[in-house]
Specification:
- By secondary structure, the protein is an alpha/beta fold.
- It has one domain: Pyruvate-ferredoxin oxidoreductase, PFOR, domain III (Pyruvate-ferredoxin Oxidoreductase, domain 3).
- It contains six helices and seven strands.
- A seven-stranded mixed beta sheet has the order 2-3-1-4-5-6-7, sandwiched between helices.
- Helix 3 packs across helix 4.
- The longest helix has 14 residues.
Length: about 190
Amino acid sequence: MHEIRLAGRGGQGVVTAGDLLGKAAVLEGKHAQSVPTFGPERRGALSSCTLRVSDSEILLKCSSTSPGVLCVLDPTIWHHVNVTLGLQEGGKLLFNSPLTPEQLAGELKTAKHGYSLSIDRYELFTVDATTIALEVIGRPITNTAMMGALVGAIGMVEMASIETILMAKFGKRGEANIKSAKAASAGLRRLGG
């Protein structure tokens, strides 16, 4: 089972991304569950979502405390909140960031922002989803770009399923969102890669 924590700020589409990724998985005959976590805070506050995708029925009905994958939609939220808390050893981290994976790993390991990554084995990917979203959609809403990047990083669902779901959700605007998702998948940078 894939257990993914999506993290970002309210208004960036974190919950929508979890929901749409789950629907894409269901299109492929998989089981999926999206559990949003947010409070009554204003737009811009921390928002997260646990997404589970499995070939068999999912019996858990709660947020994850130890995900195998972390997907961070906002380029700065991790400066203020330890979004890596509980990540499994050997986990995958995907950050929307203009930083290279090496630069980001350095910041996570040196506690530059008040916490350090507590695992030793991990895969780290970065993609500048904000720039992609601005260029393709015209707005800094990164959820569809990060959906594509997540597909590229972990292969949980096929890009064709993402395309189907985005067209169903956004209609004519779906084409720009698909272009954003594909650009982010192609723009992934991997630590050491």
